[in-house]
Amino acid sequence: MSETTTAAVPWNPKRSTPGALARLLDNKAFLVFLCLLPAVGLLMVFLTYPLGLGIWLAFTDTHIGRGGVFVGFENFESLWYDQVFWGAVFYTLFYTTVATVLKFGLGLWLALLLNENVPFKSLIRAIILMPWIVPTVLSAIAFWWMFDAQFSIISYVLVDVLGWRDTYIDFLGTPWHARWSLVFANVWRGIPFVAISLLAGLQTISPSLYEAALLDGASSWQRFTKITAPLLMPILSVVLTFSVLFTFTDFQLVYAITRGGPINSTHLMATLAFQRGIPGGQLGEGAAIAVSMIPFLVLATLFSYFALSRRKWQQGGNDE
């Protein structure tokens, strides 16, 4: 009986050529674009369009209820001779500088304390966050009562309890008293953000570095300047940038407490832009004031970008 052997023929299915859509979906660049498209669309609608419209309005004489025409730099020329505007620029820079320095000094001190082994550390951290959690307008109303000329608890303690003064302090009726009152309120609200952010940075520093420094006989100040400050510098730069941006563009706190008074002495550029644009009806001039804030914000952002681009500095070293 003979056996017939048949050679197996390999099965090679014919592959179909992928279509244009399949090739497109395999393209990495197209997939990246497709994934970013929703985010780009949201940014275009809620950021780019309002910003572009504001810049356009700054070059027109638009008023509420009446369309405007292109007037070039006329709004900016009028602001150049506007003493109220320059007063707002001065107080914005003063408010931002003083409040940022105080927030960073007190916030860093508080972060260093919370980084130690203190009793009820978790509870203290939660309590410290309260000023940051409370809505801005609610805390502004509380400060408005604290600084009231007749019902101020501060004046009551100084006059009626301690007897250190004969008259109540007019916190919000005197220009410089009002300016310092707003700085105090802003510092109170901003310290938690700085303290918790820096505390997170402190906890990334290895304890072995401090132990080695102690064995070498380093003092507390030497440990801070040689270990803590250099290694904390990258997060300091980020927190500083955000703090400057938040403080420079502050609106709710100032407007809820003083509305720019007395006699326009506490106007920030943001509150003045709102007052001229919405209650005043001069949308073009209000937009021009808002656009004038952009160079300051760009400088603050560039500072953060170029500072963080220093790789050795990020690692606690110095650039050569």
From TrEMBL:
- Give residue ranges for domain ABC transmembrane type-1: 89-304
What InterPro entries is this protein classified in?
MetI-like, MetI-like_sf
Q: Which residues cross the membrane?
A: 29-49, 88-114, 126-147, 190-210, 231-249, 287-308
How does the entry describe its membrane topology? Answer: Multi-pass membrane protein
Instruction: Quote the subcellular location field of this record.
Output: Cell membrane
Extract the Pfam families matched here: BPD_transp_1
**PROSITE patterns linked to this entry:** ABC_TM1 (PS50928)
Coarsely, its chief localization is membrane
Q: Does the keyword Nucleotide-binding apply?
A: no
In the UniProt record, the signal sequence range is: none
Which superkingdom heads the taxonomic lineage of this protein's source?
A: Bacteria
The record's family statement is:
Belongs to the binding-protein-dependent transport system permease family.
Q: Kindly provide the name given to this protein in its UniProt entry.
A: Sugar ABC transporter permease
- Species assigned in the record: Muricoccus nepalensis
List the lineage, top down.
Bacteria, Pseudomonadati, Pseudomonadota, Alphaproteobacteria, Acetobacterales
